[in-house]
Amino acid sequence: MERLRFVLALQRDQYLPLKVIKDYLDAIDRGERPENLPPGVVVSPRIVSDELAAELQNRGRKLTEEQLRTESGASVPLLQALLDFGLISHSNGMFDEHALQVARACVQLESHGLEPRHLRPFQAAAEREFGLVERAVAPLASRKDSASQARAAEAAREISDLCLTLHRALVQDHISRMDI
After folding, report:
1. Residue 87: strand, helix, or coil
2. Per-residue pLDDT tens for 53-66?
3. Residue ranges per domain, the chain?
């Protein structure tokens, strides 16, 4: 909330573009004090876990098929099946970090006898959950101001996390009822 107030204050009071505000925030996160920062406007550096820092660094990373296979441990037939069943996709022959996460999970699931054809319901469920999230944030997302867009993105992440928590709890409940 503090960061959002900081951004909104600089937009409202200083008429600064978002790119300049982002540069200020990046400098503050590095522990610097930007020279041109207006007096009285303060924000604390964002504390980022090592895991989140790695995720942010890799977010825009693109991988070739060979890099995807190497980093995930997936075989050529497995990657082809993941593509065929729509579990991963590529753009101009390049894969993103999400494809890497899916491939890694599928390599491990394959060791339990689960093949990509068994995992298609996960893609369908993800699409349904995305539709639910999209409808929930539609009122904010339809606004064109950057503050509303930021709130919509944050709300989408929060709703997504809650959906994943609910999904995990429901599956764990069924597992706990198994007679093993």
Report:
1. coil
2. 555 555 568 999 99
3. 2-47, 61-114, 119-180
